[in-house]
Structure formats: structure tokens, C-alpha cells
């Protein structure tokens, strides 16, 4: 075996600088996806044209690979529209749309899990529908599905490993640069594997604490 971990050590900080890129992208996409998921969950419950559009959107983004979506949005559409946008814009849009599609069903389950008696009691007291939605349905739905949302966030951090295809300086992109510079492959990819594993272990630990706290409350 021709492993050169000693020579690789100076490149470790450069590769690890990709971790904040992953976290920031995942947080941004998860936040936007949460809003999209809520909108789609209410649209599907209401039905009609809006429900049909929401169902089609969810079906499309859950039925196609995120890698293909990202390549299509960043490479194919600009050719059609004769306009280029930065890689980070493509990443946030695609990952937000993906997150929204998956969270929509999670949100719908959370809404369905709310005690109908609370809503009926609020209506009997003359509370407006928008206030019922804002003060009763949304807070309880989010509380019900928070563990599932956190799991989606963890999955999102793993899916971001494809963003190097559009030039984002994440872990994989930085590892590829090191590979091309010093012709090491095992060492940088091992660091990337360990980094993703530890990152998601930390996030899983935070998620388990959050879930226990919600059960306790």
C-alpha cells in the first residue's frame, strides 16, 4: 500500500472548510422547504387546482434524482434561457424544492394528527380561520413533526454531496482539488467519509435530545 497520510495532513484544513458550506446550504434549504411543505400540505388538504399543482410538484421532485435536477437546472435551463446563474443559487433552489416536496407529506401527517376538537371549539368561539391556522394548527403540526423534520435535515446534509457538480466548494469539491493536485485519492476521500459520518452523528444526537425534550414536555 502506498498511503501518504503524512503528506496529506497540510491539506486537511482546506478540505474541512467545506463543512460550513454544507451546513449553511442545508439550513437554508430546510427553512425554505419547511415553508413550501406547509403551503403544499394545506393546498393538498384543500384540493382543487392548488391541490393538483401541489401534488404534481411533490410527485415530480420525489420521483426524480436530485443530481439530475441540479444538473438540469444549472446546465440545461441556462442554455435554453441564454442566461447563467451562480451555482449556489441553483443549489438553494433545487434543494429547497426537494426538501419542500418531502416535508409536504410530513406536514400533512402532522396536521392530520391535531385533535379536531380544538379546531371545532375555536370555531364555536368565533375564532377566524386564519387565526386558527396561525395559532392552533401550524404550531401543533410543527411540534408533531419536528423529529421527522430533523431527520429530513440530516438526509439533506448527505444529499448535498452532489453540489460539487456545479462548482460549490463543499467537502467533495475540495477533496477533488486535492486529488488533482497531489494525486492522492484514498486519503482525501477517507476524510470526507469520516467528516460526513461525524457531522451526521452530531446532528442525530441533537435530534434525539430534541425528541426526548418534546416527549417530556
Automatic annotation (TrEMBL):
Cellular component terms per the entry's GO annotation: ATP-binding cassette (ABC) transporter complex
Positions of transmembrane segments: 12-42, 54-77, 83-104, 177-199
Alphabetized GO MF terms: transmembrane transporter activity
UniProt record, GO biological process: amino acid transport
Signal peptide segment: none
Keyword terms of this UniProt record: Amino-acid transport, Cell membrane, Membrane, Transmembrane, Transmembrane helix, Transport
Membrane topology according to the record: Multi-pass membrane protein
InterPro entries linked: AA_ABC_transptr_permease_3TM, ArtM/GltK/GlnP/TcyL/YhdX-like, MetI-like, MetI-like_sf
Major subcellular site: membrane
Residues of the ABC transmembrane type-1 domain: 19-204
CDD domains the record matches: TM_PBP2 (cd06261)
Location in or out of the cell: Cell membrane
Pfam families reported in the protein's UniProt record: BPD_transp_1
Keyword 4Fe-4S: no
Keyword Glycosyltransferase in record: no
Protein family (similarity comment): Belongs to the binding-protein-dependent transport system permease family. HisMQ subfamily.
Protein name: Arginine ABC transporter permease
Lineage summary: Bacteria, Bacillati, Bacillota, Erysipelotrichia, Erysipelotrichales
Amino acid at each position: 500500500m502506498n498511503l501518504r497520510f503524512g503528506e496529506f495532513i497540510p491539506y486537511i484544513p482546506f478540505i474541512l472548510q467545506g463543512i460550513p458550506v454544507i451546513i449553511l446550504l442545508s439550513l437554508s434549504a430546510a427553512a425554505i422547504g419547511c415553508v413550501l411543505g406547509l403551503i403544499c400540505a394545506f393546498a393538498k388538504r384543500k384540493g382543487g387546482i392548488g391541490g393538483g399543482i401541489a401534488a404534481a410538484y411533490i410527485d415530480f421532485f420525489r420521483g426524480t434524482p436530485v443530481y439530475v435536477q441540479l444538473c438540469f437546472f444549472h446546465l440545461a435551463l441556462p442554455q435554453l434561457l441564454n442566461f447563467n446563474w451562480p451555482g449556489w443559487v441553483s443549489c438553494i433552489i433545487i434543494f429547497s424544492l426537494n426538501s419542500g416536496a418531502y416535508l409536504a407529506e410530513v406536514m400533512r401527517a402532522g396536521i392530520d394528527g391535531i385533535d379536531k376538537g380544538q379546531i371545532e371549539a375555536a370555531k364555536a368561539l368565533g375564532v377566524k380561520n386564519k387565526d386558527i391556522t396561525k395559532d392552533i394548527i401550524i404550531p401543533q403540526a410543527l411540534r408533531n413533526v419536528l423529529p421527522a423534520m430533523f431527520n429530513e435535515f440530516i438526509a439533506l446534509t448527505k444529499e448535498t454531496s452532489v453540489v460539487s457538480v456545479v462548482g460549490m466548494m463543499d467537502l467533495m469539491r475540495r477533496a477533488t482539488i486535492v486529488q488533482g493536485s497531489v494525486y492522492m485519492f484514498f486519503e482525501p476521500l477517507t476524510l470526507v467519509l469520516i467528516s460526513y459520518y461525524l457531522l451526521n452523528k452530531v446532528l442525530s444526537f441533537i435530534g434525539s435530545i430534541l425528541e426526548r425534550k418534546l416527549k417530556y414536555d
